[in-house]
Amino acid sequence: MQEKGSISIHTENIFPIIKKFLYSDHEIFLRELVSNAVDATQKLKSLGQLGEFKGELGELKVKVSVDKEARTITISDRGLGMTAEEIKKYINQIAFSGATEFVEKYKEKDAAAKDQIIGQFGLGFYSAFMVADNVEIFSKSYKDDTEGAHWVCDGSTEFTLETTDKADRGTDVVLHVAADSDEFLEPARLRTILTKYCKFLPIEIEFEGEVINQTQPIWAKQPSELTDEDYTKFYQELYPFSEPPLFWIHLNVDYPFNLTGILYFPKVKDELQFSRNKIQLYSRQVFITDEVKDVVPEFLMLLHGVIDSPDIPLNVSRSFLQADAAVKKINTYITKKVADKLAELYRKDRAGFEEKWSDIGLFVKYGMLSDEKFYEKAKDFVLLQNTAGKFFTLSEYQEFVQANQKDKNEQTVVLYTTDAEAQHGFVQAAQDRGYDVLKLDTVLDSHFIGQLEQKLEKVTFKRVDADTIGKLIEKDEATESVLSDDDKTKLQELFTTAISNPQMHVQIEALSPQDAPVIITVPEFMRRMKDMQRAGGGGGMQMFGSLPDSYTVSVNANHPVAQRVLSADDEASQKLARQAFDLALLAQGLLKGEALTAFVKRSADLLTA
Questions:
Q1: Which one of 47, 106, 233, 573 is separated from 470 by 20 to 30 angstroms, measured CA to CA?
Q2: Annotated binding residues
């Protein structure tokens, strides 16, 4: 048996859903109603420009007022207005969008109409019933010889519609506020909502005798019309307590999608302490959300500013985004614009770029890690800084160190420090050999180093305290030990006993007599894995974060201290070995608490012995 039919939808069932669940935040009702009033005004202006409305436009403000005693909120406009028939068509037919019909009718005559009209779904009006138990519409069409219309509905599917005397064209929507929505009768609350959602609407919005919006925000203007002062002033308006931005990018594209906006690079105080929700998304100058993770690449979430696009798909309540191909295209476009801007700054003013690097380096490195296309552009302007404060590009630095820092396997070894002060002894030892040391001390650098090792041919990175300097960059020549094999074994046993810590692995090495008697290092692989885990490596990195610290204790067989330890009696050799070991701990910032106290006392005893 086969049967065909049509699904029946009963308005008495769908109406409560629209009222209660369409909008997640009840305050949005004011945004929707004001947007409708702006739409009606914009439509009238379009008809005037097309010559289809020949009357006087006059003042075209949208006015919002509240009467706490009468428990009403009124939104008034002097736009198109509606006849009784149009009210029945646009208000009584749920989801019949007047904006859509208007755009379709006039798109050939006025291409700008599409970008000026806000409404899309024809549902916004019903948000009024989230806060009102009764709503009235008083409206009069702009058309000649039409009567005013008065519509009343109590939130059910029943309504009344009658003629009324209304002197002027336009529409007044009167909300009789429900008992559970008293908060919206407070002028301060309404002002806050208007400022949040309507601050940049293209028609003046008046509340309590004051215009609360800027009708021509700077992102809607051409960059050629604006000065640096305009951009910094707007930034201060958006973020009143922030330091001035480093620089900005003005987005302005109309193909293959419409997008305008301004993205600011702020000064970053705490690395990776993402102040998300700093970029505001608008659709035709109506605030939508500050959650823009799909539109803006993840690595640029530290940016501030505004994005406005009618082509970003929104859910039916215009409360959040719906991801689709258009969003991906916009995301890609923003990535390219940011990369191009950074490349331009680098080319035009390298000195200025270097001065800003401490603030923008985080963006660049995060972008390179996150986006392959961004990496390809950024590899030419990402900067490395050495301990002397000099900056290099990747290619410049490879050329700078390759002659002196190639090991016996023809690998270029890049030495770096994560804390130049704490690792000063190791940095100094490297510099004494004529090696250069980079500062890679940001939270992202462990991941960044891994990426560079994958991308750069025959280049490896080693932290300067990861091993003795001779092993960090191994050459063909080897330093001979002055100790016999038996002495080496005895020396290892003496130090192992004196240290008495299974996490400290003692080895005897033939180093230069000028090197320290004992050097404590963390193996590069293990230390890097733990660093990446702390920086948010996740996944398999978790196992490294939970492992105990493991250290290599390199005892310098060619240092005079080794001979003293071997030749002293048992008690003295243990004291000397422990003292040399504690000096190495002190150099690594690892000597603390009781061990530090004992070291100080032992040092005093040795000085007076």
A1: 573
A2: 32, 36, 77, 82, 97-98, 120-125, 171, 318
Q: Give me the phi and psi of 463, to 5 degrees please.
A: -70, 145
Instruction: List, for residues 29-55, the tens digit of each pLDDT value.
Output: 899 899 999 999 999 999 988 888 888
The SS3 of residue 417 is: strand
Would you state the structure tokens that stand for residue 345, as one six-digit string? 């700054």
Q: Which residue matches tokens 């023809």?
A: 410
Q: How many CA atoms lie within 13 A of 4 on its CB side?
A: 0
The enclosing H or E element of 560 equals helix 560-567
Q: How confident is the model at residue 431 (pLDDT cuts 50, 70, 90)?
A: very high
Model confidence pLDDT, tens digit, residues 71-130: 999 999 999 999 999 988 888 765 444 444 544 554 555 444 334 433 433 457 888 888
Q: Quote the CA–CA distance of 167 and 498 in Å, as a whole number.
A: 100
Rounded to an integer, what distance in angstroms lies between the CA atom of residue 121 and that of residue 14? 15
Q: Give the predicted TM-score (pTM) of the model.
A: 0.75
Task: Give every CB contact of residue 108 below 8 A, 6+ residues apart in sequence.
Answer: none
Q: Which two tokens stand for residue 364?
A: 């660049």
In the chain, what is the greatest distance between 2 CA atoms, to the nearest angstrom?
A: 118
Asked if 391 and 385 touch (Cβ cutoff 8 Å), the reply is yes
List the domains of the chain with CATH numbers: 13-211 (3.30.565.10), 218-346 (3.30.230.80), 383-472 (3.40.50.11260), 485-608 (1.20.120.790)
CA distance 400 to 271: 29
With b meaning 16 or more CB within 10 Å and e meaning fewer, what string describes 373-386? ebbebbbebbbbbb
Say which residues have a Cβ less than 8 Å from residue 445's Cβ, sequence separation at least 6.
Answer: 365, 416, 418
- Cis before 256? omega within 30: yes
Whether residue 547 has pLDDT greater than 60: no
How far, in Å, CA of 366 to CA of 444, rounded? Answer: 7
Annotated binding site for ATP: 32, 36, 77, 82, 97-98, 120-125, 171, 318
pLDDT-based confidence at 323, cuts 50/70/90? low
CA distance linking residue 248 with residue 264, whole number of Å? 4
Side-chain-side CA neighbours of 81 within 13 Å: the count stands at: 23
